[in-house]
Amino acid sequence: MFRSLFAFVFSIFISVSAASDAEPPITIGLIHFSPPLSTDMDFGPTLKHLQAFFAPRKVVAKVYQSPELEKAVEQGKIDFFFASSGFFYRMQPFGARDLATIVIAAKTKPNFGTAGVFFTRRDRKDINKFEDMKGKVLVANYETAFHGYRTGMAELENRGFNHEKFFKKVIFAGEKASAIINDIIAGSGDVGFVRACWLEEYELQNISVMDKLKVIGAKPGPIKCLHSTRAYPNNTFAATYKVDSELAREMTLALLSMKPEKDGQAWSIATDFKPVDDLYRSLKVGPYQYLREWSVKRVLTEFWPAFLIVILGIVGLVVHSWRAQKLVDRATTRLLAAEESRRRTLEKSRELAEKIEAQQKINLVGQLSSMFAHEMNQPLAACKYFVDGLKALRKQKRVPDEEMLDFSLGQMEHELKRASQIVNKVRDYSKKTVTREARVDLTSIVQEITQTLKVKFNNTVVVDVRCAPDVDVEGDPVETEILFWNLLKNAMEESQKVECPKVWVVLKTDEDSAILTVENSGRKLSAEDVAKLGTQTFKSEKSEGLGLGLVVVRSILEAMNGAIQYAPRDQGGLKVTVRLKRKI
């Protein structure tokens, strides 16, 4: 009896075992997630639950890289797969069907379980918002990474940027987030992009990164980690086309019946994959790759209104051309008559231009003559002063010592040289060959002319000179001498109209200009008097003057791109400020 019962039980066990061995194992493909892995990427607890649920039937899982998992789904080599919602969405054309979406304590809503985060070094003051990232170098996972690249590019498209032209360069550092973070900290890239929660995962592993990094464009939302993009459905468990409906039902029941782990890992159902669809559409990849490819049918379908407009335009152009030709034929006769009239008018205009040019030459000769007479008077008067001095010594029957004689001859030679330079300069004006690009030592010119005029005025005028050393300007040396000679000579002459005549000369510089100030004591001037200075309406009160000194000053400054200002002094007299471009 006992033997018979044992044999019966043993036969049932053998038959069940045989039946179990006869059923093929359930195969699950797991996409390779880049470390560090958060709890919503760890399939270990779920695998243990499924193995217990389907026992004694085996449940096996294998990790695939993204391209290999894609081939396995297309060819039906696996029953189920666990991957990002983006990967699942791309597999729908191959018959994939989502069964459940993972949730954890930090991501309790399956429709909003993943996102991406842009970050940069904390000391980068030039990168604080999305616009600041334009033209910078991005470091990300790899081109097809849903979490680690595409969610970020979709966010740029949503903000109105062209993601393909937004960054100066994109560096794909591979799967490890540590490589991306290290590149940003080391300065190999400007901006990094990783899956949301990666930065927090590093902190949980006691790897301090947040003190060196800052997040760009952080958003509020149902995800408790820092993120810069919109949220998408979390990692999804899906069935391939080879799975029968009964096994798919049992697998769904098994997933949804799994009790939450300590970290909150459980399964729910995502109902909104439209954000994923919008992502692929905006990036023109995955199921919308065809938007990057053109065919005759697509061109006609998308642009038929434009083709219709073009056809109508061609018809209209033909009609317009016929009508226009008729109008052209009519207008040609009128144009020929008008051309003849225009030719006669041009001939008269040419004759008038020749007359005007001749008159301009006459005016130019007059202007050059006036300038020559005004400027030549200065060196010739100085020479006459030294000659009169030597004559006076001769009348007194005194023999000048060698130092005085050398000084007088040297000054006469200098003034005669100035006279020769003025003659050459007037000749250049008449030929229009003047150049003003030489380096002119303004400090030396101010000091030399000041010393010469002090002697000319018999030291009757106190001249206080303060010059910054080595002040060079861009211009012509002779014009610069004429400019300062006129200003200082006028100042000294005006100062003699009051008691205790005095002149102040200050030469200083700022960043790109030389500033020359000439002040003199003298009679008080009204605003109307100051406004007339340097204009053609100003008339000189000096019997020997032509009234051209300040006009010449203004002309020289205009040619040198300089500026001049006149201001009356409260104590009487005038303050003149000249600004010239420095030659650095």
TrEMBL record:
Keywords (A to Z) from UniProt: ATP-binding, Kinase, Nucleotide-binding, Phosphoprotein, Transferase, Two-component regulatory system
InterPro entries recorded: HATPase_C_sf, HATPase_dom, His_kinase_dom, HisK_dim/P_dom, HisK_dim/P_sf
Catalysed reactions listed for this entry: ATP + protein L-histidine = ADP + protein N-phospho-L-histidine
Ranges for domain Histidine kinase: 371-584
EC number in record: 2.7.13.3
GO MF terms held by the record: ATP binding; phosphorelay sensor kinase activity
Residues of the signal peptide: none
Keyword rRNA-binding: no
Matching Pfam families: HATPase_c, HisKA, Phosphonate-bd
The protein's name: histidine kinase
Species per Swiss-Prot/TrEMBL record: Parasutterella excrementihominis
Organism lineage: Bacteria, Pseudomonadati, Pseudomonadota, Betaproteobacteria, Burkholderiales
